[in-house]
UniProtKB/TrEMBL annotation:
<dbReference type="Pfam" id="PF09252">
    <property type="entry name" value="Feld-I_B"/>
</dbReference>
<dbReference type="GO" id="GO:0005615">
    <property type="term" value="C:extracellular space"/>
</dbReference>
<keyword id="KW-0964">Secreted</keyword>
<keyword id="KW-0732">Signal</keyword>
<dbReference type="InterPro" id="IPR016126">
    <property type="entry name" value="Secretoglobin"/>
</dbReference>
<comment type="similarity">
    <text>Belongs to the secretoglobin family.</text>
</comment>
<dbReference type="InterPro" id="IPR015332">
    <property type="entry name" value="CH2-like"/>
</dbReference>
<dbReference type="InterPro" id="IPR035960">
    <property type="entry name" value="Secretoglobin_sf"/>
</dbReference>
<protein>
    <submittedName>
        <fullName>Uncharacterized protein</fullName>
    </submittedName>
</protein>
<dbReference type="InterPro" id="IPR053723">
    <property type="entry name" value="Secretoglobin_Domain_sf"/>
</dbReference>
């Protein structure tokens, strides 16, 4: 199944945030939204356990990596490309 970036980006950031919070309930709510299977939930809960064990430093480092990727030129150009195509098609 293909999920467009417009739909998947908010879900990704919401789930990552719930993961980083360190509580099972918000994570499960986010995973229910995307229809995650029980094995998928268990896997992400294990990742959450690792975050909780490593503390704020691990969460902070991942946040830096995610921010770096999100604000990269490649990410911006891929996010803006559909908008540019849509605007260009209006002038045709």
């Amino acid at each position: 199944m293909f999920v467009s970036s417009v739909k998947s980006c908010p879900i990704f950031y919401s789930t990552f945030g719930a993961l980083a919070i360190g509580q099972k309930f918000p994570l499960d709510l986010n995973l229910d939204v995307v229809g995650a299977t029980e094995p998928e939930k268990e896997a992400l809960e294990k990742i959450q356990d690792c975050y909780n064990e490593k503390g704020l430093e691990a969460k902070g480092l991942d946040l830096i990596v995610m921010a770096t990727i999100t604000t990269s030129n490649k990410c911006f150009s891929e996010a803006v490309a559909p908008l540019k195509d849509a605007v260009a098609s209006l002038g045709r």
